[in-house]
Design brief:
Blueprint: H1 4-7, H2 11-35, H3 40-87, E1 109-111, E2 117-120, E3 133-134, H4 137-142, E4 146-147
Parallel strand pairs: 2-4
Antiparallel strand pairs: 1-2, 1-3
Helix pairs in contact: 2-3
Length: 160
């Protein structure tokens, strides 16, 4: 669902496209005028009156198009934030706090050789990875691996 504000094109975009078209036309006219003159002193008026302003308009168009796109993107982010805030949390308990559903609940702990974290077996970061092996109790005791921030395992969860 988009608001009417997003359906309309930002005025900076219109100005940018118009400046780009005008700059391109001026550059073509300047090139055409310069190409017909043999001597440099007769080419300078075309350069000064068409080519240089045309190039300046093209640069201004690039700035306006960039600004218009960033303004449009900012409006979209603002709209999405409004939708997110309006939706609110899906699961709210009686105390008014959002219910925290665990990502993984398995008691089996896994690690990936060469990795820095240990995970629950059903953690989305290691689920389905063939290289994941059961976490070694000695490695956990030494503190070489840290707990995964996604599945939040604890050493007590190990089912040994």
């Amino acid at each position: 669902m988009r608001t009417a504000r997003l359906r309309t094109v930002h005025p900076a975009l219109w100005a940018g496209w118009a400046a780009l078209a005008a700059g391109a036309v001026l550059c073509v006219i300047g090139w055409y005028g310069i190409s017909g003159e043999r001597y440099a002193e007769r080419q300078l008026p075309y350069l000064a009156s068409c080519t240089v302003p045309g190039a300046a308009l093209i640069i201004a168009a690039a700035v306006l198009l960039t600004h218009g796109r960033s303004a449009l993107a900012a409006a979209r982010v603002e709209e999405l934030f409004g939708l997110l805030v309006a939706a609110g949390p899906a699961d709210v308990d009686e105390s008014g706090q959002a219910a925290h559903a665990p990502v993984a609940v398995s008691d089996e702990l896994l690690m990936v050789p060469g990795g820095t974290l240990w995970h629950r077996a059903d953690c989305p970061l290691v689920a389905g990875k063939a290289e994941a092996v059961p976490a070694d109790a000695e490695v956990l005791a030494r503190g070489d691996l840290g707990p995964c921030p996604i599945c939040e395992p604890s050493p007590a969860a190990r089912g040994d």
